Amino acid sequence: MNDGDGGAAPRKRADAQRNERTLLDAAAAVFVTSGVEAPVRDIAARAGVGVATIYRHFPTRADLIIAVYRHQVEACAEAGPALLAAVASPYAALGRWINLFVDFLVTKHGLAAVLRSDDAGFHALHAYFLDRLVPVCAQLLRAAAAAGEIRSDVDALELMRGVGNLCIGAENDPRYDARRLVAFLIAGLRQPG
Amino acid sequence: MNDGDGGAAPRKRADAQRNERTLLDAAAAVFVTSGVEAPVRDIAARAGVGVATIYRHFPTRADLIIAVYRHQVEACAEAGPALLAAVASPYAALGRWINLFVDFLVTKHGLAAVLRSDDAGFHALHAYFLDRLVPVCAQLLRAAAAAGEIRSDVDALELMRGVGNLCIGAENDPRYDARRLVAFLIAGLRQPG
DNA sequence: ATAGTAATCGGAACAGGATTCCGTTTATCC
DNA sequence: GGATAAACGGAATCCTGTTCCGATTACTAT
Fold this sequence. Notes:
The structure is a homodimer.
Chain A lengths: L13 H21 L5 H8 L3 H7 L3 H26 L3 H17 L4 H6 L6 H24 L9 H11 L11 H10 L6
Helix pairs in contact in A: 1-2, 1-4, 4-5, 4-7, 5-7, 5-9
Chain A binds a DNA duplex through α1, α2 and α3.
């Protein structure tokens, strides 16, 4: 809703809309090469705008990161119920879903690191990821526990944070395979016996 | 060797030795309250010296952190073989040793985070921790694998990095229990079947 | 079409931290 | 006690992030 006209929102100016799009593209490109903590000035330069324009559109870096990756996070969130419906074993569905999440994180240079940062500026990023993905994870955990495949005392938030942490620094380092370690962690959730 | 006199090293001046000690104490105190990434100026102020004095004694922050925690890291390294000798099951010894490591990390505010940082300035810190602890971990892993208690394809470096990552952000957050997650990870190493 | 208006813009100014430089101090040796 | 070079402190520099302000430009009403 509130996309074409709206009542209260006075519709943004055309140049502002254009700049927002340009900034998203520039940020995405810079994130790929320099990571999500690239200097603000670099992103502004790449977009051909002044630094203040970034702050006007995205008050904190978290807002910019969220905007850049929103689609992929949504896709990941929606994949949870789909996997649960499509795969026979809830435990297998959980494993598959976690792999999707891990793949997403390790391909976004530095994202896992800022995701766990306790810097106040990243509060919105924290909140978004957690609000969107923790419930999905909790649903998968409940299903697997109900099926007796894993222990029932696993907290979704804790697991998500653990998996996120395991993904830190996993980009382009052949000696560290986050996927493998996460698989061990998930294996460790199985019922003892 | 080369502690009291030596041949090539011209023995440091007395005030320099005193400052180095003072700096170590000041850094240790500041690390406890503000974490290992505390501003250099704070440490200098606490020690009552100029900032350049820090750089003269410890060229990078990594050197300072290593010096502050060297004793505890050595103790952890030496605990490995001791546990292996004292505990009947190598797998149990591994678990106990990992717990020592985790306890060390989570009580040093922010240490786990810089430990995994790929910032060039922390290269020495990386190298020291890895050189000192990975061989110990490898020995424990070999013993447990030889006893048939865990799979034999676990790399010590990878495991250490995984455990270190799980400890990031674990200080004073009741909703995140790094010890518990590490326990799951170690449990996941058991032989399948 | 045009003048008025307010949203938006760009880059300079400011702030905070790390790192380096240099004139001064001081321990050591003779 | 004086010469010498190591060590010192703090100012200067550099690099980011963030805010401010005069200039610009899209929209609106006539």
